[in-house]
Amino acid sequence: MNANKIELNAQVRTILGSKVRQIRADGFIPAVLYGNDQEPLALQVTNKDFNKAFKSAGESTLVYLNVDSQTYPTIIHDIARHPASDAIIHADFFKVNLSQKIKTMVPVAFIGESQAVKDGGIFIRNINEVEVEALPQDLPHEITFDMSTLVAFGDQILLKAAKVGDHVEIL
Predict the structure, then answer these.
(1) Cα(146)–Cα(158) distance, integer angstroms
(2) Which of the four, 63, 114, 131, 168, has the lowest number of CB atoms within 10 Å?
(3) Could you give the CA distance from residue 156 to residue 61 in angstroms, rounded to a whole number?
(4) pTM for the predicted model, two decimal places
């Protein structure tokens, strides 16, 4: 479970369609909130605040979205980026039920140094993310693997070496 609660403020958006260019020019990202008994709600979040929250949460960590006087537990389900600048131009927030397990993809990170790589070997990464199932508040931000276990050429890191906690199931 995350020690830090990630919160993000949003406002209801009345500008829709191609007119959202003005929202982006004013420093906002158009977004939508949907899911779990939630009617789709058009929103806007500040670019700076969203980027900070997305860096901390990614697409697998719980984000509490504050809209007017209500707070929604969500995960950032999808983002759209500008094809040339790579800037985020739209975000989807999926409202979750905190008592219901969800399935999602969690990024994989490799830490440490491998003696086999130092000796001239090449590290081949077969996966970038892993599907897990857990309650939303138990979802890890990423799953880390220690590369220092790779001592000789041909050594492998297996998925069973993942340390994800008792409340997270790797699918």
Answers:
(1) 11
(2) 131
(3) 28
(4) 0.82
